[in-house]
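DATA SHEET
Item: assembly model
Revision: 1
Owner: S.N.
Input lines:
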Amino acid sequence: MTGTDVTIVEVGPRDGLQSVERTMATPAKLRWIDALAAAGLRHIQVGSFVSPRALPQMADCADVVRHALTIPDLRVSVLVPNLRYAQLAFDAGVHVLTIPVSVSEPHSIANIRKTHDEIIEEVRAIVALRNARYPGTQIEVGLATAFGCTIQGVVPEDDVIRLARRAAECRVDSIHPADTVGFASPTQIRRLFSRLRDEVGEKCGALHLHNTRGQGLANVVAALDVGVSAFDSSHGGLGGCPYAPGATGNIVTEDLVFLLESMGLRTGVDIERLIEARSILAAGLPGEELYGYVAEAGLPKGFVPAMAVA
Amino acid sequence: MTGTDVTIVEVGPRDGLQSVERTMATPAKLRWIDALAAAGLRHIQVGSFVSPRALPQMADCADVVRHALTIPDLRVSVLVPNLRYAQLAFDAGVHVLTIPVSVSEPHSIANIRKTHDEIIEEVRAIVALRNARYPGTQIEVGLATAFGCTIQGVVPEDDVIRLARRAAECRVDSIHPADTVGFASPTQIRRLFSRLRDEVGEKCGALHLHNTRGQGLANVVAALDVGVSAFDSSHGGLGGCPYAPGATGNIVTEDLVFLLESMGLRTGVDIERLIEARSILAAGLPGEELYGYVAEAGLPKGFVPAMAVA
């Protein structure tokens, strides 16, 4: 295995599973994560430490982390909404901990019941705890609703920059904007990302996209142009929202890998094994609809992935 | 109505309808075309003049053209495979006539039973007839399978350039590459289009994309970067191929309009009316699956189309 040009962060076991009504049983989750890692994914967000009442799908997060940490060369990340749950994540030994900081304050309050000041205070406390006791753990902030919000509507770019600056002042390791509800356009991606890079530099290199309006991969192309080198995506496009008919979840990992490899960018992922792993995902969530074009249509005749050329 | 930045050529009544098994009745076609024009589409490919035995869906092409020509400010185009059918198109009074010239010779033979030499001879004869008797009619060549072919596999770019040069020598008005089977990547789009522009200049400004592997809009973003200013697309993404399960047809007009308008590019199309027109399409083809994300998810809260800003 040689190097990769673009990092794919698989978030299906977190963003995907928290967005479907069914709960995947723990053994099925472990089999799925094993299959994702075996396909070459080297960074998987395996769950959230959150209230099991709010998200029963994530109640087994500690068990899932314990298993994922036994997989060689896998970066294991989780999402946490506050200091209390961050403590559980540190104890579990995750490599990366992601904190959602929503640029739309109404969304932040609806999502994690915190104002901007309150969540920034949590971020500061989590970084202090890390510095004191868990120096090897990376902390990243996901700037949710950075491109628009279903509650607030338009989200001004100046608000994104202001909040990114506050997150950077907390000395987190990375900051990435998220198109939480699939509002972003390629023009917006290029403009906002360039501003963010000017503001917080190399800490900003990743992007979290949803495909709600079918613009996910178009936004990837625009993001590559302005130096984004890591993308969150979800195997099988898991995560159709039960409250938005027809809305799909994150961009589909299989289609993202195909896009990047067909552009000559090495992802380290074996697309055929990734497509085969859909049956393991499907077995763990019987009846749940999976998304993705390449898995349905097949690879082009004569297709050579960038990995094989390199 | 002010100017537009990007032209959308609606090809649903041709590429879409020829790819579904059901035949839409003529009155339903006319209602659909009326609704598309009323939504602001100013260029519609309304059918093909071809053998009614081969494509019974297109048997009423002359009637459809006759009606479409009564719609104010509408450019009416049709596809024709040879001189004989071109004569029917000229007689019908279309504004634009498109000839498919497949870069993959095995595909050309399978599709229209002509070698490269034979189809170029037809193009030359059609241009000669136009020059002699129908000087107002535009002739365009669609370079089918320019990005790959399900029969031949990889299609060398040099073959595309060679055939584009031969088409240009015939003095057609425009030449556009087509990703007939959804193999193209953004990298390929940028590279090939730049070479084509160097070779045939301004005659090359349009692109025909399919969304078979979900890369359609990603390819649009790449194409805009290299100066493409016109795209074929299909209302409702009509055209799922019965021989390729899960494969969709052309890129979806609704999603394309949303992409472009959200990028600040004026299309002249009223996206809400275009989405409403799906019910007219659906009524004309009961039971046929329609595609598209924006129609399902709705427009973003606070969305302002470029048209309204201009």
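QC remark: The CA atoms of residues 7 and 212 of chain A lie 22 Å apart.
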